[in-house]
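agent: user wants the full assembly modeled, not chains individually. Plan: 1) parse entity lines 2) check alphabet per entity 3) run joint structure prediction 4) return tokens. Steps 1-2 passed, two entities, 692 residues total. Proceeding.
--- entities ---
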Amino acid sequence: MSDHEYVPKSKFGKWFNDRLPLLTLASHLTDYPTPKNLNYWWTFGGILTFCLITQIVTGLTLAMHYIAHADLAFESVEHIMRDVNYGWLIRYIHANGASMFFLAVYIHIFRSLFYGSYKSPREIIWIIGIIIYLLMMAAAFMGYVLPWGQMSFWGATVITNLFSAIPLVGEGIVNWLWGGYSVDNPTLTRFFTLHYLIPFLILGLVVLHIWALHVPGNNNPVGIDVKKPSKDTVPFHPYIVIKDGFALLMFMIVFAFFVFYSPNILGHADNYIEANPMVTPAHIVPEWYLLPFYAILRSVPDKLMGVVAMLSAILILVALPWLDTSKIRSAVFRPLYKQFYWILLADVLILGYVGAMPAEGLYLLIARVATAYYFIHFLMILPILGFKEKTMPLPLSITEPVLGGFPNAEIVKKKENLY
Amino acid sequence: MPKLLKKKKIYINLVTNIFKISYLIVLLLVGINQVNAAEKVELLKTDWSFKGLFGKFDRGSLQRGYQVYTEVCASCHSMKYVSYRNLFEPGGPEFSEDQAKAIAANFEITDGPNDDGEMFTRPAKLSDKFVMPFANVKAAQAANGGAYPPDMSVLAKARSGGVNYIYSVLLGYEDAPSGVTLEDGVYYNKYMYGNNIKMSEPLSDGLVEYSDGTIASKEQMAKDVTTFLMWTAEPHLEARHKMGFKAILYLIILTILVYFSMKKIWSRIESEV
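--- prediction returned ---
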């Protein structure tokens, strides 16, 4: 928040701004004081905004040509791929865009975990973020159903069937979700409707996410509070704009490689076979970004408890700001947490891998151990660590670690050991 | 403390952490894969012209592949998303328009109803989709011992292993190993999922006669028809590769320019970027 009140220069500007302070908003966004030590892991917020807009724009275009009907959906996708001008490009951007969106959101989330961005006073930003993440998963899942291939159909069958685990009302809920007694045309049309709606809900939440961010301002790699504006901050424009732009371009290069040179590598071959309720694929696997949760679901022998475990794995994140009892934000000053952070990351990657494998033998064992560890990390390690861990002394301001000017020699020495 | 040295240390730290994790994961994956390795069969490979950053279809191969498809496969396998006009469009087999018209005219299509309310047959036109060998799935199953010959339009994308898998299956017919008994009308194929296939070996040396003088060996026909199937699955592959190269080159140049602008702008601040 800039301290001085913004006054438009032109007379019309002043007239307009008095009635709708859009220019004040623009001025706030331009001047917004940002910690100058933000590293490239902080550029993923901007990248995610780009992903959302890309998905909305390509999605609108696809919706003009797509037909949400069980008998026509697969054919209409092939029509887009073959006969619509640059239809193949738009569809491949949209399909790979979903994967890139999740890649970016996982980096964004793990950045927050490393630097403690979820801690006071940023809990609301974090919780809105988790809601966005949940909506993203819903949107991605329903989007994957729309081409009405084999994986679409059977993925939808498996996931909607999870609700049947709910005691007493489960069956009823599943029939209500399907709009019938199996996944069929009514399911497809409602999934299409919701798939169209959710991105706009996400867009609204993104506005709230950014609004909530602009109240306390950005966290930073050092994790200390920053006086704003000060020599520790730079105005958002042009410094952060150009840096985000540079990172976005690098991201787009990776994105373009997928779209143009291996557009189907992240999908499943079976989804190019039209949905057939009479033939079940050998292995039903979700898209890669849902695999860790799929592994957690399958690692529990009981269906209901499996669903509970899977949902808890996501919802536990909502409580994270209170489960992590340490007052120190950045892992840079938390030598023990830093180790556990990397173990958690490895744990989630392992869960993702076993989620893609058949749930039997060694895979199942690994999945169970990894699932247990996931919950132990959040429910036991984090709360205890806050009390037990000996943290490093924090610098007084950002300028210090950046320029290397520490008030006493001992801290400097400790800092060195740290890196 | 010199700034650069510290920066370096951070990077070294980051890199070692990444290495540690990747090492653990690789170890795990290798361990798991060794358990699986025994079950997997290595697919046959050949030099596909359409792979790689500048990959393009071999026109001759596409035209020969069409011939194999229409003379051999098409008696059972439909190709319902491909139109006759696609045969002369750029990026495909690129027959001349007249050739494509002549090809289409070989097929009879049911159209109508006409003004008298009657259905009638007429020769296919460029705008028609490939005529299907069977009226419906049930008819196809009835004629093929209960197995439905899959539609071939997107087949090359619908099988894991893609073109290598199709190529392998075409060349993977063998006598069943001793101890394996096959049901009537089922054949043994080394690469087919489950090793049982209801299609008899479709290719044999000299089965078709290529007009361009290429010797129609089994391998040659398998390669040609698989190339053709890749094109039907991905008719805009050449356009995609071409555009991809331009797009990425443009992005790289822009990224470099933005990088230097960023350096310039941030030089006003006592901070690294």
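agent: reporting back. The helical segments of chain B are 3-37, 59-71, 97-105, 137-143, 162-171, 218-233, 237-266. The radius of gyration of chain B is 27 Å.
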